[in-house]
Write a structure and sequence with these properties.
Layout (H helix, E strand, L loop, with lengths): L1 H33 L3 H28 L1 H7 L4 H11 L2 H20 L3 H26 L1 H22 L15 H8 L1
Length: about 190
């Protein structure tokens, strides 16, 4: 528990950036759809997708580069450090997946596909719990984070099912605007 608690602040950072990208984009997307500006809504979705992938990759890179600094700044040593490092092994990948799955979940829900969204949550959370328990017993702390990675991966896979459904109105358009980024980040 101490090893996981040592990583908890980074989990909070992942969740912050996941929410920052997903909630703002989905809110502005819904506002644009409601105003009958579908092309503008598509731009917001496209930018949100680009930003979620970019922020996820940037966060993963920061976690990779600052691992040693993080542990030394927090004075984590000994056995707790060993367990924390095992858990941290896949944390950068999980950071990317977390930001991305948060965005997809919000957008699928805003697009009106509650069934797909609920199934996504079940696979994401259920997969995390089941695989974390099984893999932790098999390979220790690394298995715990792998359970989270698998859960997020399953969530992304299920969300992608929405794009094959007849009711999908989410359409990707290449769009990057600093003004829109600030609008969705508020």
């Amino acid at each position: 528990m101490a090893a996981i608690n040592a990583i908890t602040p980074l989990t909070g950072v992942m969740m912050f950036f996941g929410d920052l990208v997903s909630i703002g984009a989905s809110t502005i997307y819904a506002r644009e759809v409601g105003a009958m500006r579908k092309n503008r809504a598509d731009e917001i979705f496209g930018q949100g997708l680009i930003v979620s992938v970019s922020v996820g990759l940037l966060l993963a890179a920061v976690f990779l580069l600052l691992r040693g600094v993080y542990f030394s700044a927090n004075g984590i040593t000994g056995e707790i450090l060993e367990y924390s490092l095992d858990y941290y092994r896949f944390l950068p990948l999980n950071a990317f997946l977390t930001v991305f799955v948060y965005f997809l979940e919000q957008m699928v829900y805003i697009d009106g596909d509650e069934l797909c969204n609920n199934i996504c949550y079940a696979f994401q959370i259920g997969g995390n719990i089941v695989f974390s328990v099984i893999l932790t017993k098999l390979i220790g702390m690394t298995g715990n984070i792998l359970g989270s990675v698998i859960g997020n991966g399953l969530g992304i896979f299920v969300c992608c099912w929405h794009f094959l459904r007849k009711g999908n109105t989410l359409h990707f358009v290449w769009h990057l605007s600093f003004r829109d980024f600030m609008l969705t980040s508020r």
